[in-house]
Hints:
Blueprint (H helix, E strand, L loop, with lengths): L24 E4 L9 E6 L3 E6 L5 E5 H7 E6 L3 H7 L7
Antiparallel strand pairs: 1-2, 1-5, 2-3, 3-4
Amino acid sequence: xxxxxxxxxxxxxxxxxxxxxxxxxxxxxxxxxxxxxxxxxxxxxxxxxxxxxxxxxxxxxxxxxxxxxxxxxxxxxxxxxxxxxxxxxxxx
Length: 92
């Protein structure tokens, strides 16, 4: 009898990953307690940094959660800025 394998990461989907840029303004399904629904993307990675456009509160949200709760892009950011801020591999 083999060892049971537990799926902790969830199933991979056929959908491509959502492309986010620094400076994007997104609208999420749930409103912030201050009443704001628009969020500025100010950090990219496994966790996405969002800043409320209404009150300025900063939160970190998992990328998967953003993909599920995103309803619209209010304004798109700059892809060049995002590429410039991406980490570069170190030279050997």
